[in-house]
Amino acid sequence: MTVLGPFLFGAPLALFALLSLPVIWWVLRATPPAPKDVELPSLRLLEGVEPKEETPARTPWWVWLIRTLAAAAAIIGLSQPVYAPGARNEAPDAGGALLVVVDNGWPSAPRWSELVDAATATLDTGGRDAATHLLLTAPQTLNTNPAMRLSRADMAKRLSSLRPQSWSTDRTEALERLKDSGLKPARIFWASDGIESEGGRAFAAALSAIAPLSVYAAPPAGPAAITGISSQTDSVSVTLRRAQPRGEERGFVSALTLDGSALATAEAVFNDGEREAVASFAIPAAALSRIARFTATGRQGAGTVWLWDSSNRSRRVGLVDAGSVAQPLLSDMHYVRKALEPFASINEGNIEALVSTSPDAIILTDIGQILPEDAKRLTEWVEEGGALIRFAGPHLAAQGDDLLPVALRRSSRALGGALAWDEPQAMAPFPSNSPFDGLAIPPDVRIKQQVLAKPAPDLARKTWARLADGSPLVTADSRGSGTLILFHITAGPDWSDLPYSGTFEQMLRRSIAAGRGESVSDTEGAYSPQLVLDGYGRLAAAGANAAPLKAADFGTIKPSEAHPPGLYQGPSGTRALNAGAGARPSLIEAWPLAARLLGDAEARSLRLAGPLLTLAVILLTLDLFIALLVAGHLPRLGRRTKGAAALLLVCALGFSLAPQADAQSYRYQQMPDGSYRRVSTAPQVVPIAGPGRATQKEIDAALTMRFGYVETDNGALNERTRAGLSGLSSVLSLRTSVEPAEPDALNLETDALELYPLVYFSIPEGAPPLSATAIAKLNVYLRSGGALVIDTRAGGTVGTDTDVAPLETLLEGLDAPPLQPVPTNHVLARSFYLLDDFPGRFANRRLWIEKTGGPNAPRGDGVSRLFIGDADWASAWAVDSRGRDLYSVDGGPTQREMARRFGVNLVMYVLTGNYKDDQVHLPALLERLGNGDEDEADPRLPERLPEGGPQ
């Protein structure tokens, strides 16, 4: 480059064309030649007319001025001028050794070719036989010794073979190498990246003190580095930083997969005076999980690439939807969801849908029976690397399956319960080999109940957490490439206080990571480089110089030759070391006064070639328009032409003023082939579903409350059950505010059970097992708050125990909790009437309900959804179309009345839950019980209890 005052010229020879400007001016200003005198005979007619002397026409001054300025602008623009007010005009010393200093760290990558060209061009100055020396500022093991003498030809080859490194410069270390070499150069040329890092100004001052210094500064334009990233469940924010804060500037960031496929692009806007900007991505979690790196579009360099490792990526967790929960705040899943929301993307659904999305983990809360096809899907998914996390509870305690890390001490499937202590247990310190090691033990957490593991030789190895008495609290075992994890307590607060503590969230987070073969906090072990970035930001296999990195050093170490930026594989999966992490690039604002500045001198240079050539084109266009206008070659606009032009102008204005679509008003939808397509999220009109989507039976059940009964192969039994529920509905309409419609017969495989608050199932003799579809629908019905009454009708046998043997086969697969006889003073005995027995056609029979419904073992809302008995209640309730009783009852009218009152209590209990299980009515109840003790009459007789309302 040639320096002329504050201007630098890349092609100074083009300025010689300015010498032609006077010739151009003379040609444009020239006067046309005078006309010749020719005598024509016809001119005699003009004799006597005095001739009028006229001056030949000349080109107007403003026309030749326009043309002259256009020519001058084009010539100066072709000389590639750069306005650099900091450049100095002193010529360098032409003799002595030349030291070429090159910044070859990652900030130089965006303009690397300019730096190499500038360093190569400086070899043309000075003596042909003068020695040259090379100093690189990025530290390397085999870095060039500055004292090594190179010929100009060798220096040119060496410069052309250089590449930017993926780590930053260390100018202090470079200056030390220069001093240790003992080299005393006659002049120094510094090809600088212009970034104030590692003491840029101090380095320039030190070089200027050694020898006359020339600096070619080429700082990166636009975004210089990606300095940080933050992720949420369905969004990512990428922070970019530029070196100079002047002016408004826009940049783009692309989200790429590991193989380089682009998934999304977001815009970042740098406002005037600001160095940082944020690019925000709002895409689904399934797409986020595929992103491996972010890169500033159109900007090369390791600093403009951010590798996204597994530790920072949002986890994708699937929660098995056990059916719509009537009271979601009381469900176990509520506590799991709240614990996962800060760091995981949550997706809820059935097992089949969740497995198809391949999440990081799937969580099941107290599900004792998994359908065979779902169990097969889960097993295959776990063996392929999935993490299955399960929580215990009454259902799992009573049943269980093979998808457990340890064998459990389960009680009877139908009538048992989980083990409990007299005194709640505290948590013991976590074992050193546990993923929970290092977490604080909450001192106030107590475990009141749990499911115990059977003793086994490898139980200690599988235990991640224990109680103070040594019993396992969390166990895990590998299954194929995945992991099975079991919390031996419920996910809610029924069995422990752990869900209330912050430790619960940390345990879940570490369980998900450990289940994927990773850990959240690892201070031991080493990470081996897997893929590294080169200076241009391209991923490549790690070279021989890349060394393993200690786990404890992550977050503090800076990239170097031994530890280049890239992906490292270790105990926590993949960890990323990024070149731009925490970087704060800024321009070198002050240069030594004695330095000769080139390039973007003092970061205030302005390239003038483009503006000058644009000015030349504008001036020539204006001159052409004027020439055509004067010559009359421009068409005159008529009415039609004017109208068409006006219409085009209005359309153009309307298009320019039309509201533009928001850049972020879209989302990404997964296609069947696994790819993602961007779809609009603008408001759309959703048509109302047309008729025919639901049957008339379902519409009637949705509009008017009614009961349902399971339709069996026994027609007579079906009619008996229908008559029983019809009679119960009539009693409810007469005595309460509940007015049910006629009951419906239900097919468990096809009908919508959720439309019925109570389903009555009379078991026929020799009934075949229910199908898997029917069992699955019953499980969903019970989990969603429905009530199932199972009547074996075998109460005529001797004894009070219910024979549940037929149910073992009939209901195989039903996710039934532990059962218990109705406890004394249970809310079922006082939800409307005060009862001490629950008779049907047969008296003195035992009614079994969920153990969770007992007053001493509350869980959720404390309401049982499963009732099993053999009293044949439907026969006692049954009436014909005229309201007459159809079947006899052992105890006569009194027992029939008590059976009806039990039916009323049952419906009230199902509809209102534990409404009566409070202290509001306690004084009145105690007073009534006290008055009843003074009477000799049987308190169960109809005349002793009112029929008009709840007592």
Task: Give keywords.
Rossmann fold; seven-stranded mixed β-sheet; alpha/beta; 951 residues
Summarize the structure in words.
This protein has five domains: 1-29 and 58-84 and 605-631, no CATH class; 98-219 and 587-604, von Willebrand factor, type A domain (Rossmann fold), CATH 3.40.50; 222-311 and 528-581; 322-515, Class I glutamine amidotransferase (GATase) domain (Rossmann fold); 696-944, Rossmann fold, CATH 3.40.50. Helix content is 26%, strand content 20%. Helix 1 packs antiparallel against helix 2 (61-78) and helix 2 runs antiparallel to helix 14. Strand 17 (361-365), helix 10 and strand 18 form a beta-alpha-beta unit. It is α/β, with parallel strands linked by helices and 951 residues long. The strands form nine sheets. It has a seven-stranded mixed sheet with strand order 16-15-17-18-23-22-21, with helices on both faces. Mean pLDDT is 79; it is low at 86-94, 412-420, 652-690, 853-860 and 933-951. The longest helix is centred in the middle third of the chain and has 23 residues, at 609-631. The protein is elongated, with a radius of gyration of 44 Å.
